[in-house]
């Protein structure tokens, strides 16, 4: 029972606990004040002498009768005063209880106000605005120490994020040079005048394919680092319908090669958004590439672009086998793939949908991945909606 009571108390808000504590203190102070007042009043009643009324000399019997009446009258007055004092004490105690709770809540709110400010500011800071600091004013107390500690943590996190992004970008750039050298050397070796054995040609083609895969992987690293860095330099208003249509036209040959049926009747021009043209185009390309690559021959792709409330929505659904939702939810993370169980091939670097998620987050949107109950995948990208008139004018 004691353990359950402790857990229940720990689950209450801090302000409620402070209110109960301060209210109890104020109430105990009021009870003590009333108790002292009653004790002093009782002592004065007990020790007060009974005065003999002045007047003529009375007989013994008349004097005793008068004294009896006076004592009876005095007892009635004392009882009346006791009742009045008791009623007044009860009313004062009730008023003091209400005042104690109100004062306790006010004092608790004043004490917790800096903590609420720190909590709200910390919740607002994310990976995109780690440069912000709490910078809590006030004297050097416990709250100030807490704010300074959080500022130091944010500074270290900002440095760590920046170092990580620089490392990915620099490593990707540096690795491009040896890859280009290897590809050039391979082309020179294959292009020699003397006959090249068929086995060597097959090996060269395989190495070239692997180099292309590494090149795409590095390009994905660069895009992911740029997206997470938040560098939206070429901002513009554009229609998701136009972007998706352009991506479909560019991949018409791949769609035909896999005999895919594309249902794009719900692609409209009313889904306008604002952001980096390069990144949003890459986002649409990755979504379409994912729908083509991870689809079986003779399958289908259904595309929808629409304006839903304050969001521009892009939905791409594909055919395929029934997938596990827990595994699908992890596809937005880098290097997460469903493997050959999904498409029968191991193509892809595992960065496509993670780049889509990063681009959507950089634009204030999100990515939702769902396994269709009938089989296949549903990819939904939600972005902030831009005014259509401004987009058309642009």
Automatic annotation (TrEMBL):
<keyword id="KW-0547">Nucleotide-binding</keyword>
<keyword id="KW-0418">Kinase</keyword>
<dbReference type="Pfam" id="PF02518">
    <property type="entry name" value="HATPase_c"/>
</dbReference>
<dbReference type="GO" id="GO:0005524">
    <property type="term" value="F:ATP binding"/>
</dbReference>
<dbReference type="InterPro" id="IPR005467">
    <property type="entry name" value="His_kinase_dom"/>
</dbReference>
<dbReference type="InterPro" id="IPR050428">
    <property type="entry name" value="TCS_sensor_his_kinase"/>
</dbReference>
<feature type="transmembrane region" description="Helical">
    <location>
        <begin position="20"/>
        <end position="40"/>
    </location>
</feature>
<keyword id="KW-1133">Transmembrane helix</keyword>
<feature type="domain" description="HAMP">
    <location>
        <begin position="109"/>
        <end position="162"/>
    </location>
</feature>
<dbReference type="InterPro" id="IPR003660">
    <property type="entry name" value="HAMP_dom"/>
</dbReference>
<dbReference type="InterPro" id="IPR003594">
    <property type="entry name" value="HATPase_dom"/>
</dbReference>
<dbReference type="InterPro" id="IPR003661">
    <property type="entry name" value="HisK_dim/P_dom"/>
</dbReference>
<keyword id="KW-0812">Transmembrane</keyword>
<keyword id="KW-0597">Phosphoprotein</keyword>
<keyword id="KW-0067">ATP-binding</keyword>
<feature type="transmembrane region" description="Helical">
    <location>
        <begin position="85"/>
        <end position="108"/>
    </location>
</feature>
<keyword id="KW-0902">Two-component regulatory system</keyword>
<keyword id="KW-0472">Membrane</keyword>
<dbReference type="Pfam" id="PF00672">
    <property type="entry name" value="HAMP"/>
</dbReference>
<dbReference type="Pfam" id="PF00512">
    <property type="entry name" value="HisKA"/>
</dbReference>
<feature type="domain" description="Histidine kinase">
    <location>
        <begin position="170"/>
        <end position="387"/>
    </location>
</feature>
<keyword id="KW-0808">Transferase</keyword>
<protein>
    <recommendedName>
        <fullName>histidine kinase</fullName>
        <ecNumber>2.7.13.3</ecNumber>
    </recommendedName>
</protein>
